[in-house]
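User: tokens in, sequence out, please.
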């Protein structure tokens, strides 16, 4: 939740940037914004310079100033807005949502904070079902128990004042198709455990990662994840567990280090899946990129090496028929997970 102290700190940062820009204009110096570089989640003590006087970077400069002014307004008067809403406010100036997304990341680096703490939101794509209720700041209650279908996660998750659940665990699945399949297989009645089912529909957005973090920390629920046995599935698992590479400086509020990876494990492909496929050039490049990270656990590193050696991959769908009645319950009950 955004506190008064956080708001005051952000306002002071933005106002200091504005003062420095005005001083540069008055003194006829080069008008420039410096964006910190982050390497593996840490500031490298170097900066990327975005200069108004330099024509190729002028548009990026203007977008950053525009975002800083909007963030300042939001924190002074209250409220929040979506990045897409900002785009449609002046499409001619912004040109493309990809431009404002990139500028938003620059602003996060400059202010050393996550987008949700700026008041800039992205439409949530995550889905949730099971034994959980969200009590909102305005008094509304979003109770998944009252619905027979999946619910989309709130866009502004910081407006969730409290989470209530009598579940025993959280199960995250990589894909919406697997999420829907588990619901159709009546997984809530076959597992023998009360649980919350959640998907980020591939690479998770901040709202999805934030709810997993809060369920783990505030509700003290063990969280398990099921992804494809391929390098991109493993990267998705690591995004939930360690945070994204681009936003790793703010991963303390979005990552869930205790996340348990129950499968599919590359080392078990031969015994559980008969629908493996060959790795592509992109798969192999992703494996090399992942192995270059210095925060991988020994177990995850070994699974990546197993992928590299076998040159085979498998999707969750290849074991879909026995996911609910056997695979997932067995992995959880026998603690057959990796961290």
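Assistant: Sequence out:
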């Amino acid at each position: 939740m955004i506190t008064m102290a956080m708001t005051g700190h952000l306002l002071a940062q933005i106002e200091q940037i504005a003062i420095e820009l005005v001083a540069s204009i008055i003194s006829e110096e080069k008008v420039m914004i410096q964006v910190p570089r982050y390497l593996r989640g840490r500031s490298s003590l170097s900066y990327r310079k975005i200069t108004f006087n330099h024509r190729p970077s002028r548009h990026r400069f203007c977008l950053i100033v525009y975002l800083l002014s909007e963030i300042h307004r939001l924190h002074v008067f209250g409220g929040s807005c979506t990045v897409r809403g900002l785009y449609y406010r002046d499409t001619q100036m912004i040109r493309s949502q990809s431009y404002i997304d990139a500028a938003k990341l620059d602003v996060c680096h400059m202010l050393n904070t996550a987008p949700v703490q700026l008041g800039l939101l992205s439409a949530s794509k995550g889905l949730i079902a099971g034994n959980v209720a969200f009590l909102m700041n305005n008094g509304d209650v979003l109770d998944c128990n009252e619905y027979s279908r999946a619910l989309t996660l709130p866009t502004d998750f910081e407006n969730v004042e409290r989470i209530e659940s009598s579940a025993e665990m959280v199960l995250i699945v990589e894909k919406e198709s697997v999420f829907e399949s588990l619901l159709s297989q009546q997984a809530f009645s076959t597992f023998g455990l009360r649980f919350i089912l959640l998907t980020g529909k591939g690479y998770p957005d901040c709202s999805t990662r934030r709810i997993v973090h809060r369920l783990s920390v505030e509700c003290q629920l063990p969280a398990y994840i099921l992804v494809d046995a391929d390098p991109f599935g493993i990267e998705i698992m690591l995004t939930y567990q360690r945070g994204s590479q681009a936003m790793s400086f703010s991963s303390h509020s979005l990552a869930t280090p205790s996340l348990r990876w129950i499968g599919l494990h590359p080392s078990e492909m031969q015994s559980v899946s008969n629908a493996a496929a060959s790795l592509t050039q992109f798969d192999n490049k992703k494996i090399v990129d992942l192995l270059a990270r210095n925060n991988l656990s020994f177990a995850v590193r070994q699974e990546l090496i197993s992928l590299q050696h076998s040159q085979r991959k498998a999707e969750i769908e290849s074991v879909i028929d026995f996911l609910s009645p056997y695979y997932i319950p067995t992995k959880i009950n026998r603690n057959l997970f990796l961290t």
